[in-house]
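Input record (one chain):
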Amino acid sequence: MNRSRGNSKPTGGPIDWKLHGVKVIPGNQLDPNTAQSPGMSRAAAINFARVGAQKIWAGTVTINPNAKTGAHHHGSLESVIYVIKGRARMRWGERLEYVAEASPGDFIFVPPYVPHQEINASTDEPLECVVVRSDNEAVVVNLDIEPVEKSEDVAWVDPIHRPHRPG
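The corresponding structure, as predicted from the sequence alone:
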């Protein structure tokens, strides 16, 4: 097997790289025929059906100004959300009792089975994000949750860096 030249599969035999190589999916050709939650519009770019992806799903999410999604989770999948435009307010927990916000350029990580809700914190511009999940299926489990009246703000601090203290 010759991996250094990239011309054969680990199991041997040549690969037709023209058919099984890089695929470019134009942004204006995303597929809205994917699992949805009330209040948002998802569109798939990368999945098994479109490109043969085996281990990831990627697409976009748009939430209108001053709108929010229904509570949901994504089963055993991990999700990464990258905020492109707008301000994302995330609520999560058994009763959506926790809240944090993200701005353009921020990443959001959602672990498996975490009940959550995305909120567009802006009253005048759409929230636009890119989403990547750890499997090629668009798993969405919509939930009927009665949220708490006031969510608890949660500042994210990783185990390596110290919390930022103003002043």
